[in-house]
Design a protein that fits this description.
This protein has 398 residues and is an alpha/beta fold. The chain has 2 domains: 142 residues, Alpha-Beta Complex (Aspartate Aminotransferase, domain 1); 233 residues, 3-Layer(aba) Sandwich (Aspartate Aminotransferase, domain 2), CATH 3.40.640. Helix content is 40%, strand content 15%. The chain is built from 14 helices and 13 strands. The chain has a 7-stranded mixed beta sheet, with helices on both faces. Strands 9-10-13-12 form a 4-stranded antiparallel beta sheet. The longest helix has 24 residues. The structure holds 4'-deoxy-4'-aminopyridoxal-5'-phosphate (PMP) and glutamine (GLN). Glutamine binds next to loops.
Amino acid sequence: MDVSGGWERTARGAMLLGDDGGLKPTIFAEMSALAAQTGAINLGQGFPDEDGPFEVLEAARHAISDGFNQYPPGLGMPVLRRAIADHQERFYGLKADPDREVLVTAGATEALAATILALVDDGDEVVTLEPFYDSYGAIIALARGIHRTVGLRAPNFQPDHDELRSVVTDRTRLILINNPHNPTGSVLSRETLELVVELAHEHDAIIVTDEVYEHLTFGVEHIPVATLSGAWDRTVTISSGGKTFNTTGWKVGWLTAPNALLQTILAVKQFLTYVNAAPFQPAIAVGLGLPDEYFQRIASELEQKKDLLSAGVRGAGFEVSRPQGSYFVIADAGPLGFADAAALCRQLPELAGVVAVPVSAFVADEHKGEYASLLRFAFCKRVEVLERASAQLARLDR
Ligand code: PMP
Ligand code: GLN
C-alpha cells in the first residue's frame, strides 16, 4: 500500500514536501537544528533569548494555580478579548467589539491559516509581498488558492505601486500584507496602505494584515491598515503576544475583524484547534495592559540591538539593509564573494560559529535567483550574544 496516499503527486503535496516526497522541515526548524548540532550562535529562527515582563509570567503561573486549566470559550477568554479591544483603541483609536469582533487564536499562525482556509476557494488569487513568511505560501496551497506576489527589492524593500496595481485584479480574493515585514524589516508607508485599500475596493478583495511586529518599529510610525478610511469593513487584522512579550512559545495570537468575516473564520478555526493556551490568555491580557513606557522601551532596546548587529554584520563585509521594524536585518553576501546565501548559511557555523537563514527560503522558486545572495540575521538576542556574533562574523572578512 502507498502509505503516503500519493499526496506527493498532488500540487499541494509537491509544494509542501521535499524533493524526495518526504517531510521538508521549515527553514527555521532546519537552521535551529543546525545551531543545536554545531553549537553556533542562533541568529536564524526569530525568538528572543530573554524572558519578557515578570508581571506577565507571574500572571500565567497564578492562572495555573488558580485552575484556569480547562478549555476556554471558543472566542477566547473575555478578559483577553477585552484587553485586545482596549489595546486597539489605546494605540490606534480602533473600536472593536470584544464579543463580536475579536477572536483569540493559537498564535498568529492559526489566525492566518483559519483566515486563508475560510476565505480562499479553489483558484482564488491571494496577493502577498515577496519575500513572504513561509506559512503564507503553504496555507494558500492547502486552500488551493493561487499565490501572486509583489516583489520587495533592496535597498528599501518597499513595493512598487505600479506593480501592486498590476497584480491585484478581479481574481484577487485576499491582499495579504505583513507590516512591519518579515524578513526585510520594512514598514509600509501610508501611501502604500492607501493604495492597498483602494485596490481592495476596486476589485472587491479582502485585506488580511499580519502585524505581529506592530510594537517593534524604529523611529517610524506603525500604521494599522484597518485605521485607514474605508478599510475596517473589509480587513482582518492579525497579531500575537509572542513578539511583544517574549513569549513565542505560548502561541497566543488574535485577530480583529467585522463580525461577518470573523464568523466565517471561526467556522474553520473551531475545527483546527478549537481553543488553546487557557492559562496564558489572562497573562497576555496583563501584558496588553502594561503602561505605554513598556511598549516604548521594547522598541528602543530592540533598536539598539539592531544597530549593534547591523554594525557587526557590515564590519564583517556584508552589505546591510536598514530595517525600520521587526527582529531582522538583511545582509548581502555578494561583496564577500558569496553568491549563494543558502550554501553560505550551511557553512556559516563552521566559518563563523553563527547561524542565519537565506532569504530565498521566503521566495517562490521562480524568483529565488533575485534574492540568492541575501541572508537574514535575527537581532532579538542579548547584547552580549550579538557582540560575540559580530566578533565571530569578522572572521569572514579576510
Ligand atoms: N507572521 C510573521 C510575519 C511572523 O514572523 C511570525 C513568527 N514569528 C508569525 C506570523 C507567527 O506568529 P505566532 O508565533 O504567533 O504564530
Ligand atoms: N517567525 C519566526 C521567524 O521568522 C519563526 C517561527 C517559526 O519557526 N515558525 O524566524
